[in-house]
Amino acid sequence: MLGVDEAPNMVQAKALVKRFGGFEAVRGIDVEVRRGEAFGFLGPNGAGKSSTMRMIACVSPRSDGDLRVLGMDPDVEGPRIRARLGVVPQQDNLDTELTVRQNLQVYARYFGLSRARARSKADELLEFAQLSDRADAEVDPLSGGMKRRLTIARSLVNEPELLLLDEPTTGLDPQARHLLWDRLFRLKAQGVTLIVTTHYMDEAEQLCDRLVVMDAGRIVAEGSPAELIARYSTREVLELRFPPGQEVPAETFADLAERVEALPDRVLLYTAAGESALEQVHARGWRPLSSLVRRSTLEDVFLRLTGRTLVD
Ligand SMILES: Nc1ncnc2c1ncn2[C@@H]1O[C@H](COP(=O)(O)OP(=O)(O)O)[C@@H](O)[C@H]1O
Ligand SMILES: [Mg+2]
Predict the structure, then answer these.
(1) In a 3-state reduction of DSSP, which class is residue 209?
(2) Whose CB among 40, 242, 247, 299 lies 3.0–4.6 Å from 211's, allowing a Cys bridge?
(3) CA 217 to ligand 1: nearest atom
(4) The ligand 1 atom nearest the CA atom of 199
(5) Residues spanned by CATH 3.40.50.300 within the chain?
(6) Distance from the alpha carbon of residue 46 to the mean position of ligand 1, in angstroms
(7) Where in this chain does the entry annotate a coiled-coil region (predicted)?
(8) Residue in 20, 211, 220 to alter for ligand 1 test, most ligand atoms within 8 A of Cβ
(9) Structure confidence by residue, pLDDT tens digits, 164-222
(10) What topology is assigned to 4-223 in CATH?
(11) Maximum distance among all Cα pairs of the chain, rounded to whole angstroms
């Protein structure tokens, strides 16, 4: 039998199900997260990402299927698993009655650190979260990015080997997101395994070594960002915008691309060579309001798999 520390995977789920009454939020998913990787759940709101994360975090029991976290069964060894996890829930749940530093110290005391050790741990994590100059400030007036960094700092108090982050950057401005991504890269470089949920394809592309695309409780694709794009999309995409009211059916450009998608506000031509497709469009007398040639993204993968965009 394998000892806990030789467990091959940080998370191993087979046919994992979460039901709320008669509703299946997670509909039999298989997931394998390896030590040291950054693993992502990418999907729109309602896909079942948080429900999955809460089962992995051992705060919500599974309804069916099998789940092992750090080689253990959450139903049996929840507390032992939780002691080795860091959890950043979708909604910050900081204690607004306490200062920034106190939030970390109180949490450290929960984990059994001595008063002195809790204080030095808090200082170290404030430094890591770039919040040292806010140590004695109240939590409420902090920006969204600072609150998120404090929640992440708090999740690191017990030096977890597996960190779960549920939508770490939702609602943050680009600068705050990049700052946060930088901190997550550092953790990964230190050997912490990361599991991230997001509905931002750029976040998934930036952070994740491997990811699953989730939709309506199911996994619809799995791989590295590059693999998924290679498998489900083309190298480039030509985006055409036409004046409002001008009907341009997808078939119009069917022979210019591997695939054409007509969205309410754009027509997308999936092709290896966007610029030459654009020349053809012009040569045929079409005059779009604007045109853009870009590389394929995970958003294109999701659209291909579900017929919908990731963020509505
Ligand atoms: N406690 C709950 N009771 C009933 N339905 C829930 C509960 N939590 C989540 N759901 C439903 O399960 C589905 C998946 O939710 P969730 O896991 O939060 O998705 P995501 O995190 O991807 O947005 C949604 O339809 C949501 O309304
Ligand atoms: Mg969620």
Answers:
(1) coil
(2) 40
(3) 14
(4) 22
(5) 4-223
(6) 6
(7) none
(8) 20
(9) 999 999 999 999 999 999 999 999 999 999 999 999 999 999 999 999 999 999 999 99
(10) Rossmann fold (3.40.50)
(11) 75
